[in-house]
Design a protein that fits this description.
Elements: H1 2-6, E1 8-10, E2 20-24, H2 28-44, E3 50-54, H3 59-68, E4 75-79, H4 83-88, H5 96-101, H6 112-117, E5 119-120, E6 123-124, E7 127-132, E8 134-139, H7 140-146, H8 157-166, E9 173-175, H9 181-190, H10 208-222, H11 230-233, H12 238-243, E10 247-253, H13 257-263, E11 268-271, E12 285-291, H14 298-308, H15 311-319, E13 324-325, H16 328-331, H17 334-337, H18 345-349, H19 363-373, H20 375-378, H21 384-403
Parallel strand pairs: 2-3, 2-4, 9-10
Antiparallel strand pairs: 1-3, 4-12, 5-6, 7-12, 7-13, 8-10, 8-11
Helix pairs in contact: 9-10, 19-21
Length: 404
């Protein structure tokens, strides 16, 4: 909690008025976008001073500490994957009554998948700022030099492998590979597999469709030899290799765009994720604003959320290139479409087939199990079935604990 105090930035407020406490993470650039918006809000709402709590690292852990100490902020910025864990503990407020009665903001102002992502068990706990999904980034220069056609809508896993083979030589690789579930879930879903069953009571990773899909992902390294192994690139991130011109294609999200706009000295663009056996299916996750169940100022907290979720504020976040906006009326403007990548509309075109990650209150722990446990399989030291068996058992145990 001492760290929280050290990271607190307070706006000027009358001494007799208690400030609305608002917590968020984000880079320096992101906070610099946020601060003028908060200043604008306070000019319009002089009775609602805002205390900004910036937590740049370990945000979920910090919020859990604040919840345990009963010092929750009034408004919290939160990822959809974390939301079920907090909602289950009863520390978030149902926002449906505010949304249903508000004359300025309604559920139809947002893409439906992100509204679903910011809810749990049918209750709307958050209002989305952005839509987080994945597309394929590609280096046009490397494609042109190799005489390889750019990826297009409708291309397949097999097309990707063929292109990647033509683009792999020396220390240059055709396509990226990351061990985190975020990046391999689209391969799983697009081939008909899944992480959990529809009821979210057990893992389905050992079922034939899931196992085959994960094997096709692993094959990028050890069968087709088009994706780098850890031994070949160490701890380098795929975005780093891409920026260095050593990676022709990488699966990534909109969050890399601001950095790419500043740093890349070659032409680049985006394409949809390649089709698998059942389609091209990526995530439709979100980040957004929630209100603490213990807030003494829920009406004022809603006024802040309504302002931040409005078209003007969402446009400001969008113009930096950082986010896919949660609002269609912003996504279809120059705020999102202008600048690189040229094919920004791809981020919108994939929404209809996208799906929120099947999160549960223990999703943090499930992710850790997958990241740690699958390491030997992703590194070629163990086959997938062997690596997955104890992971699935632990995931099933976590889900059983949730039910009790």
């Amino acid at each position: 909690m001492a760290l929280m105090t050290a990271l607190t930035v307070s706006a000027c407020a009358p001494a007799e008025t208690q400030a609305l406490r608002f917590s968020t993470w984000g880079s320096i650039d992101e906070i610099e976008t946020l601060k003028p918006l908060l200043a604008d809000f306070q000019r319009q709402n002089p009775d609602v001073p805002v205390e900004l709590i910036h937590v740049p690292d370990a945000y979920p852990q910090s919020i859990r500490l604040m919840a345990a100490a009963r010092k929750m902020p009034d408004v919290l910025f939160m990822e959809s994957q974390l939301l079920p864990g907090f909602a289950r503990r009863g520390v978030l407020r149902d926002l449906s009554p505010y949304l249903d009665s508000d004359p300025e903001l309604g559920p139809d102002d947002f893409y439906r998948p992100v509204m679903d992502a910011m809810s749990w068990k049918g209750t709307q706990y958050g209002i989305p700022r952005d839509l987080s999904n994945l597309v394929m980034f590609y280096n046009r220069r490397l494609f042109d030099e190799a005489g390889v056609p750019y990826p297009e809508s409708g291309w397949t896993y097999e097309d990707m492998v063929a292109k990647a083979k033509a683009l792999t030589h020396g220390d240059q690789f055709g396509v990226g590979f990351a061990p985190y579930p975020l990046y391999w879930l689209p391969y799983l879903w697009s081939d008909g597999g899944d992480l959990l069953n529809p009821e979210r009571t057990r893992s389905t990773l050992l079922e034939p469709e899931s196992l085959a899909a994960l094997q096709r992902y692993r094959d990028l390294r050890f069968k087709h030899h088009v994706a780098p192994t850890e031994a070949q690139v160490g701890n380098a991130r795929m975005s780093q290799l891409f920026a260095q011109g050593k990676l022709a294609m990488m699966v990534g999200g909109r969050w890399v765009v601001p950095s790419f706009r500043k740093k890349l000295d070659f032409p680049w663009d985006v394409a949809p994720f390649p089709r698998g056996k059942v389609g091209s299916i990526v995530d439709a996750d979100a980040s957004g604003w929630c209100i603490s169940a213990t807030s003494k100022h829920p009406e004022k907290a809603w006024r802040l959320i309504r302002f931040l979720a409005g078209r003007k504020a969402i446009s400001a976040f969008t113009e930096s290139g950082l986010i896919v906006p949660s609002r269609p009326d912003v996504a279809n403007t120059a705020a999102f479409m202008a600048g690189s990548p040229e094919s920004s509309r791809v981020f919108l075109d994939v929404i209809d087939a996208a799906r929120p990650t099947p999160t549960t209150p223990s999703y943090d722990e499930i992710q850790y199990e997958l990241i740690d446990g699958l390491g030997p399989a992703w590194n070629g030291e163990e086959d997938l079935a062997t690596a997955l068996k104890p992971i699935v058992e632990r995931i099933d145990a976590l889900l059983q604990e949730e039910r009790h």
